[in-house]
Write a structure and sequence with these properties.
This protein is α+β, with helices and mostly antiparallel strands and 596 residues long. The chain has 18 helices and 24 strands. An 8-stranded mixed sheet has the order 6-9-10-24-23-22-19-12, with helices on both faces. The chain is globular.
Length: 596
């Protein structure tokens, strides 16, 4: 017999009745039922109920074991009586009558229980992550993550992609988030950087002549934590393709993503196709370039209905500034003063002056201060424009769209949640396309890249090369061949058709205020490679952690990551970051200059 087990704790069935078996695992819990002791024994594979009666030679030791001790049990498999069968366990029709117990290791007093699903402070959960991971739900999430990644790899290979690995130690980049720097011992005063993404390397792989690349790539960014973004490191499905246009990337990636979600949907619906939504349309309709399409609410520009109206708060702004717009946010079934007042109070809590509204009574009459001021004709025109019915409402925001669209989008989502309009049983995908190539930095008073600096401008190449850098209006109107995949309001990935022409890259960086020395210094390898025949290429990089988070139905990446850091980018279990000794610092030629 094997030293530790003949079966796992998830193996035993009625076919094993009568067999002598050996199982090992953790004591999930101990129950005393009038002289009979029940030990639920748990391992990676499942749970087996083990029973000791006072006549068993192992009974005395069974009385001593405690939760999370690791033990070995030898015994006979018996069928449970009909009334004691547990239909929720795969092993629920049998139990093991204990003949012998061996304690393999004991557990001290637990800082958090493994049995049950109680909530504990993040600090406790992360400090004792090895215990937290023993809990059933978290254990299942991590296993599902493994299955999802295996499925992704299989699907990518089936789609004709090849898996390559790119360097972890590389050069620092001036774009994007802060780099994690690694000092060089052999080159004093110089530093490597951990890659924020394998962006340049995957493009260089295409230039090297490999046609379809993918990698489950670790990425490192020194940025603040969020619920949907881990501090420090994360993983992405990095993809690049040669001789492609935007539609080719969509046709390759969309089936992989859709079929992956169908595989793990567990009864939830998945978009049949991903609609293409231009960036400007997404902002105007949803107030976000990450729209949650499970929410049916679409906003609309109703500026003309308020121009020269009796609602002076809006009319005066429209008259004073032609860039001011009034956006309407429909609220189907929200037609009560109580709901409208609640939303108005919420808006004030968000730092807004309020949230104007009209609601429609059972008789179809528009009510509220705005309806009273603009009159029945304009009220009815707004109702027709938005196709609102009785007992519906509509809310309004007024100002410069660039300044109020985020609040409008947040209000749209809140209305959708409050009125239970969001389909919680769906995965709603879309592509966001036609991102602006550049944006205006009001603090620096200059044009800068709005997205990926390596993207190809969606603009006639000769005309682009001839652009006057002072022609700000034209420059800010240029779109890039850039795209995002969004699911349920979460950005899963960004991608682009890359700039493979060195003269266009030089011009693109010059427009953003970077002279050729920046290109040569920071992106010299890429610029040099483009001189020697680069194919048209493009790619994308869906976030693995966010995909798993969605498929597990979680709202925080901590629930789908083995060993996450806390919100302050600290590993409480391994005590990182940590101080290092003077000898190590000396070898790296580093002297600390700490803040007081």
């Amino acid at each position: 017999m094997h030293r530790y087990r003949t079966h796992t704790c998830g193996d035993l069935r009625t076919a094993n009745v009568g067999e002598t078996v050996r199982v090992s695992g953790w004591v999930h819990r101990v129950r005393d039922h009038g002289g009979l002791l029940f030990i639920d024994l748990r391992d990676h594979y499942g749970l087996t109920q083990c029973v000791a009666d006072p006549d068993s030679a192992a009974f005395k030791l069974a009385e001593m074991v405690r939760a999370e001790w690791v033990i070995r049990i030898d015994g006979e498999v018996k069928a449970r009586t009909a009334e004691t069968i547990n239909p929720n366990l795969p092993t629920g029709e049998v139990e093991v009558f204990i003949r012998e117990i061996e304690v393999l290791s004991q557990a001290g007093e637990l800082p958090l229980p493994v049995f049950g699903d109680q909530e504990y402070p993040e600090e406790t959960r992360l400090k004792y992550r090895f215990l937290d991971l023993r809990r059933e739900k978290l254990h299942q999430n991590i296993m599902k993550r493994s299955e999802i990644i295996s499925s992704i790899r299989r699907r990518m290979r089936d789609a004709g992609f090849f898996e390559f690995q790119t360097p972890i130690l590389t050069a620092s980049s001036p774009e994007g988030a802060r780099d994690f720097l690694v000092p060089s011992r052999l080159h004093p005063g110089k530093f490597y950087a951990l890659p924020q993404a394998p962006q340049q390397f995957k493009q260089l792989t295409m230039i090297a002549g490999f046609d379809r690349y993918f990698q489950i790539a670790p990425c490192f960014r020194d940025e603040d934590a969020r619920a949907d973004r881990s501090p420090g490191e994360f993983y992405q499905l990095d993809i690049e393709m040669s001789f492609v246009e935007q539609e080719d990337v969509f046709n390759a990636v969309e089936p992989v993503m859709r079929d992956l979600f169908v595989e793990f949907a567990e009864g939830r619906t998945v978009s049949g196709s991903f609609p293409r939504i231009p960036y400007a349309e997404a902002i105007a309709k949803y107030g976000s370039d990450k729209p949650d399409l499970r929410n049916p609410i679409e906003m609309a520009d109703v500026t003309e209905h308020f121009r020269d109206s009796g609602f002076k708060v809006f009319a005066s702004q429209i008259a004073a500034d032609p860039t001011v717009e009034v956006w309407a946010i429909p609220a189907p079934t929200g037609g009560s003063r109580a709901f409208c007042d609640r939303m108005n109070s919420w808006a004030q809590g968000e730092g807004q002056p309020g949230l104007g509204y009209i609601f429609f009574r059972d008789d179809g009459e528009g009510a509220g201060p705005i309806a009273k001021n603009i009159g029945p004709e304009r009220t009815e025109a707004i109702r027709d424009r938005l196709r609102l019915g009785d007992n519906d409402a509509v809310f309004f925001v007024c100002g410069h769209p660039a300044k109020h669209h985020v609040f409008a989008g947040t209000a749209r989502q809140r209305i959708g949640r409050e009125l239970k309009l969001i389909d919680e049983n769906a995965f709603a995908f879309c592509w966001i396309v036609d991102f602006p190539m550049y944006e205006w930095n009001d603090d620096l008073k200059q044009v800068e890249f709005s997205h990926n600096p390596f993207s190809m401008p969606n603009y006639d190449h000769e005309a682009f090369l001839a652009l006057d850098p002072s022609d700000t209006d034209t420059i800010l109107s240029i779109k890039a061949i850039q795209y995002d995949i969004v699911c349920n309001g979460i950005e899963l990935s960004s991608g682009a058709i890359r700039n493979h022409k060195p003269e266009i890259m030089r011009k693109a960086f010059a427009i953003a205020g970077h002279d050729e020395s920046v290109l040569t210094d920071k992106f010299g390898g890429m610029l040099n490679a483009l001189q020697y025949g680069a194919p048209p290429h493009g790619g994308i990089a869906p976030g693995i952690d966010r995909i798993v988070m969605l498929l597990c139905g979680e709202e925080n990446l901590r629930e789908v990551t083995l060993f996450p850091m806390n919100q302050r980018a600290e590993d409480l279990m391994m005590r990182a970051p940590s101080e290092v000794g003077a000898r190590q610092l000396g070898e790296l030629h580093i002297r600390l200059n700490l803040p007081e």
